[in-house]
Amino acid sequence: FYILACRIGPFIHGIKKKIQAIGGTLLVNPDGHEWLRAKWSTPVRRYWKISEGLMVKHADLLVCDSKNIEQYIQEDYKQLQPKTTYIAYG
Asked: Boundaries of each DUF1972 domain copy (predicted)?
């Protein structure tokens, strides 16, 4: 199962249990740094940062479309030992 972006983080644990129950694997594309964008209000940015962390925690594999995003995930979430791969656009 492939999930694009990290906006459903608070719900991912329950979803992952269902995916595992049928023998599936959870792949997540962490998208970008939405939580850093000033166009979003502070509560929205906080939600997206928390959501991102939960997605990183529960994903079986994080599929990054940017080397910089992959590096960020590996560094910022080092304690979770995230499994990542890089697949370029195009």
From this structure: 1-90
The two tokens of residue 50 are: 């928390």
Tokens of 83: 């499994």
Q: What is the pLDDT of residue 89?
A: 77
Please state, in angstroms and rounded to a whole number, the distance separating the CA atoms of residues 71 and 40: 24
Q: At a CB cut-off of 8 Å and minimum separation 6, what does 79 contact?
A: none
Q: Which residue, among 72, 30, 74, 70, has the nearest Cα to 54 in the 3D structure?
A: 30
Q: Which residues share a beta bridge with 62?
A: 28, 84
Tell me what pLDDT residue 33 has.
84
How many structural domains comprise the chain?
1
Containing structural domain, residue 34: 2-86
